[in-house]
Automatic annotation (TrEMBL):
Keyword Metal-binding belongs to the record: yes
MF GO annotations: metal ion binding
Any matching Pfam family: DUF2007
Source organism (scientific name): Nitrosococcus oceani C-27
PROSITE patterns associated with the record: RUBREDOXIN (PS00202)
Top-level division of the source organism's lineage: Bacteria
Keywords: Metal-binding
Designated name of the protein: DUF2007 domain-containing protein
Boundaries of every DUF2007 domain copy: 1-65
């Protein structure tokens, strides 16, 4: 299992799930129904998450979901606001919402 995408917008997460499944890449959505718990949990812990069932598909899945990052794999980065470590495909901090600067 490998997390490939996380966003507050469930429709977008489901769209990505459909896209991967259309290419035969197994994946599941977690936290689909956790929005009702918002307020009791930190908000980002309630965000829907898209997980690959087989992380060997990660490269192919990343190319499908993030074609603009295709030619050059983005380096991982550290959030300037909360110091969270983020993988290169994320342009926004899942923890505090800060955008990547570079
Ligand atoms: Zn952050």
């Amino acid at each position: 299992m490998k997390l490939i995408y996380c966003a507050p917008n469930l429709l977008l997460v489901k769209h990505f799930q459909n896209l991967l499944e259309a290419h035969g890449i197994g994946c599941i959505v977690k936290n689909e129904n956790l929005n009702s718990a918002a307020g009791e949990l930190p908000p980002t812990e309630c965000w829907p998450e898209l997980w690959l069932t087989d992380e060997a598909n990660y490269g192919e899945a990343a190319q499908l979901l993030f074609p603009s990052a295709n030619e050059q794999i983005q380096p991982s980065w550290t959030c300037p606001r909360c110091d969270e470590w983020l993988e290169g495909q994320f342009n926004q901090c899942w923890n505090c919402g800060e955008y990547r600067i570079n």
